[in-house]
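Whether sequence alone determines local backbone shape is best considered at the level of individual chains. When preparing material for the folding task, we compiled for one chain both its residues and its backbone structure tokens. No coordinates are needed to read the tokens, only the vocabulary itself. For completeness, the protein is quoted in full, as a sequence line and a line of structure tokens:
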Amino acid sequence: MTAHPPVILHADMDAFYASVEQRDHPELRGRPVAVGGSGSRGVVSAASYEARVFGVHSAMPSFEARERCPELVFVRGDMGLYSRESKRVFEIFREFSPSVEGLSLDEAFLDLTGSERLMGPPREVGERLRARVRAELDLPVSVGIGPVKMVAKIASGAAKPDGLCEVRPDEVRAFLDPLPVRAIWGVGAVAEERLRAAGFETVGDLARAPDRRLEKLLGDWGRQVGGLARGRDVREIEPYRAAVSYSEENTFGSDVGDRAVLESTILTHAESVARRLRRDHVQARTVVLKWKEGTRVAPGPRGYPQHTRRVTLPEPTDDGDLIARAARELLDRAALDQPVRLLGVGCTNLIGERPQQLGLFASPEKEKRGQLNRALDEIVDRFGGSAVRRASQGPAERAALTTQIKRGDD
């Protein structure tokens, strides 16, 4: 039996958050819109295509976006709404393939390999998918189709906005060769600078280079870069890929040195992370504290020193209070000597949830905390995340929304 050649579709919602806002608020249609914080430390999470004409893009500081486009309309955003719309989007995706790998709330890979007899040619499948999303959700989506994941993802970018680009196997090299080296997955600013200094400007230059030369420049990773440049990507669709960590963070409106404020923010993040752990029926062995100092040491958004500390717990937990205690101990050890710009709490080293231990050695306090957490979860599920808070929790307003999939969040 002859194996079917792989066919990968990458679907990427166009300016997802901004498109949802323009759909739900007709007065925003045709206007430059940015979703994100409008304050001095706000960050653009999504920009409508009307805003992109002015050079506004995601991850741009809000003050710079406003300078580029004085008429820019800022919308704070509604993560719950975007998550619900994302679920509707993915329901449509799964009607076109049983193998869907979500990369974020607004994009996914679909494996169409071997489905042509049932579904039709890949291009027709892609067009039907786009039409379904438009008809049912009134949202635009761009689609890229290729024989490997990287090519499909690059193709969807080439199709934007609201289009489709198919790259057949015999077209891969012609498609990739003219692109800059930065188009290769994993090639960031540092690797790009190193490659360009060595005379590599395009993907085609990389594809024609001997692997040993790329290994000399980039180490063991160089061989993989050469393979990607030639259109070889061995990564398969991972429809059931589980989360490996959970985290929450926020950027303060002004630098914070007050210990009480930092501790209350830690508790807020810990409770949010713990709720998501419980909803996914997992527990964490390791707690991570992350912070950025308020003093800039280099230009750009990465110019603020960032630190992380972590601790492994005696036993895994999904309890927000225990996570917060561990994070506060990490804060103690950090001995901060200057105010904090950003603060985050995360959990990793995950295991499946253990069954309730009953009998002589069961902890009454642990059981009471479990009952309390289940009661809080029920309230939040019914009335929303702001319906109930612990007295010592503080506000933790994000500078920008995230497009990452937060498993267990509404």
Observations:
- The first strand starts at residue 8 and ends at 13.
- The chain is about 40% helix and 20% strand.
